[in-house]
UniProtKB/TrEMBL annotation:
Residues 76-452 form the Circularly permuted ATP-grasp type domain. Residues 461-537 are annotated as: Disordered. Transmembrane segments: none annotated. Pfam families: CP_ATPgrasp_2. This is Circularly permuted ATP-grasp type 2 domain-containing protein. It comes from the Bacteria. SUPFAM superfamilies: Glutathione synthetase ATP-binding domain-like. It comes from Cellulomonas aerilata.
């Protein structure tokens, strides 16, 4: 073992590479041996090459309002095929249950009538939109793309941390990470059979085409972006390009005659499926915010008429509510007649009086989260909070128990990460992405591993300064090789494509609106905006 692993400390968390006896776990032995053979300067040189490739690609993220190159760590995360073949069905099961729940929420609400969930759970959710009631996609799919956040607890068991079925982001980093890592460690990709991720754009396009209105044989699919000022614009442009479809803004679309049309240099072209990356509230100024310039007036009317499909469906955010999250195991049993394959993290529902009183008594031991928070903002880690912060939090919980959940502090699993001292354990989570085409839920092998870079930090979100890792799911060597060999798509985006080529008077207003959406995404509930951060949400 070289200096890179010298002094690698054991911790309270489950380390995915080194066990408590100091032995390398079987899944990581080949990668560990390759890293151990390298000198510190050699590995750092590869890390610097990896970082330069990201700068060249223009892979960025938003940090405190500033666009920065996205940090990707040079040491991969490895998941065995056996582990993945347990996790992936659990993710697919959860997506199927959430599909059924959302169809029920905006339909007959059988789960309410049968007492599985209270009606107030739905109607009090920030992202429940009555405008979406009765709108049904042709193939019945509302959750075309989902990101289910997983962690491994102190025992190494995978658990679900939260669900993302509105506009889940991050898959561009998965594709870019893999592209860059194949160039950084070609010898490992030659030696190991790693399940490919390059099929994702094809799978996504197939799912979107399958959701087209009836009678459309060759559907026109577009990606709707808020614009070049949005922090995820790199992802929007990458997905449009790798799927071979048009990337449009709201001003490129017009609703006329009960249909959606795209303005082109050859005239108007009918649009059948919109993969939108615009939040519900900004999608249609007729149905939602009248001041929005990011969507197109009339989109909801066309969706209701069945002439266009919006993916993901409007109103899905009710399933992202962290209080709804606590009911998902019950929803799986109710809709699917199955036991959950991947369990939740233990959670207190603070609207229940006994749970609220217990949490108030143990506030300094727990993590408390706003139910509609995101990006690691708004939550409080009790053991790190000051007495004044806990006192303020106590008052807020009593005033609005529906707006919060509480969980134990979970020591997220750790993976070696290259830092100044060498390879050291850092906490990680995992966001597998699932694509639903109406016939099956396909789960992308691996997904996005997010890593908290500071020592001991539990916040993994890029918006809080976290980075990412390439996630390698090992294939069973005894099984058949993939029918199609993994092909790396050309993910490079020219630097100039990330800024507008021309300036017009509407750009200033559009930039302001895009920034407003990003603030809206970060805000959650206004009363929890300025709370200190903690464990990932």
């Amino acid at each position: 073992m070289t200096d890179l692993f010298d002094g690698y400390p054991p911790g309270a968390a489950w380390d995915e590479v080194i066990d408590r006896e100091g032995e390398v776990r079987p899944a990581y032995r080949h990668v560990h041996a390759a890293l151990a053979k390298m000198s510190g300067p050699e590995l750092r040189a590869r890390a610097e090459s990896l970082a330069r490739s990201y700068v060249a690609q223009g892979v960025t993220f938003d940090f405190a309002g500033e666009e920065r190159p996205f940090p990707v760590d040079v040491a991969p995360r490895v998941v065995t095929g056996a582990e993945w073949d347990t996790v992936a069905p659990g993710v697919a099961q959860r997506v199927r249950a959430l599909e059924a729940f959302l169809a029920d929420v905006y339909g007959p609400q059988r789960a309410v009538a049968d007492g599985v969930v209270p009606r107030s759970l739905i109607t009090s959710s920030t992202h429940f939109h009555r405008q979406a009631k009765g709108i049904v996609a042709p193939n019945g799919v509302r959750v075309h793309v989902s990101g289910i956040d997983l962690i491994r607890d102190e025992a190494g068991t995978f658990r679900v941390l939260e669900d993302n079925v509105r506009v889940p982001s991050g898959v561009s980093y998965v594709l870019s990470n893999r592209r860059a890592m194949t160039q950084t460690f070609p010898e490992l990709f030659a030696a190991l059979q790693i399940r490919p991720v390059a099929d994702y754009p094809v799978r996504l396009l197939e799912a979107l085409r399958a959701a087209a209105p009836p009678g459309v044989d060759e559907p026109t699919v577009v990606v709707l972006t808020p614009g070049v000022y949005n922090s995820a614009y790199f992802e929007h442009s990458l997905l449009a390009r790798t799927m071979g479809v048009e990337l449009v803004e709201g001003r490129d679309l017009v609703c006329s005659g009960g249909r959606v049309w795209m303005r082109t240099t050859q005239g108007r072209q009918r649009v059948d499926v919109i993969y939108r990356r615009v939040d519900d509230e900004f999608l249609d100024p007729v149905a939602f915010r009248s001041d929005s310039q990011l969507g197109s007036p009339g989109l909801m009317a066309c969706a209701r008429a069945g002439t266009v499909t919006i993916a993901n469906a409007v109103g899905n955010g009710v399933a992202d509510d962290k209080l709804v999250y606590t009911y998902v195991p019950d929803l799986i049993r109710y809709y699917l007649g199955e036991d959950p394959l991947v369990a939740n993290v233990d959670t207190w529902r603070l609207e229940e009086r006994e749970a609220l009183e217990e949490v108030l008594d143990r506030l300094d031991e727990l993590v408390v989260k706003p139910v509609d928070g995101s990006g690691g903002k708004g939550l409080v880690v009790g053991p790190r909070a000051s007495r004044a912060e806990l006192g303020d939090l106590r008052d807020r919980l009593r005033a609005d128990p529906r707006g919060w959940i509480a969980q134990p502090v979970v020591q997220l699993s750790t993976v070696p990460t290259l830092v100044e001292e060498g390879l050291r354990p850092r906490h990680v989570d995992l966001r597998p992405f699932a694509v639903n085409d109406g016939d099956q839920v396909w789960v992308l092998p691996g997904g996005l591993t997010r890593v908290a870079l500071p020592e001991g930090e539990l916040v993994v979100n890029s918006s809080q300064g976290g980075g990412s890792k390439d996630t390698w799911v090992l294939a069973d060597r005894r099984g058949p090789r993939p029918a199609r060999p993994p092909v790396d798509h050309p993910h490079t985006v020219a630097p100039q494509s990330s800024v507008p080529l021309d300036v017009n008077p509407d750009d200033v207003r559009s930039q302001s609106m895009q920034q407003q959406q990003q603030q809206h995404e970060r805000r959650g509930r206004a009363q929890v905006q300025d709370r200190p951060g903690g464990a990932p949400c």
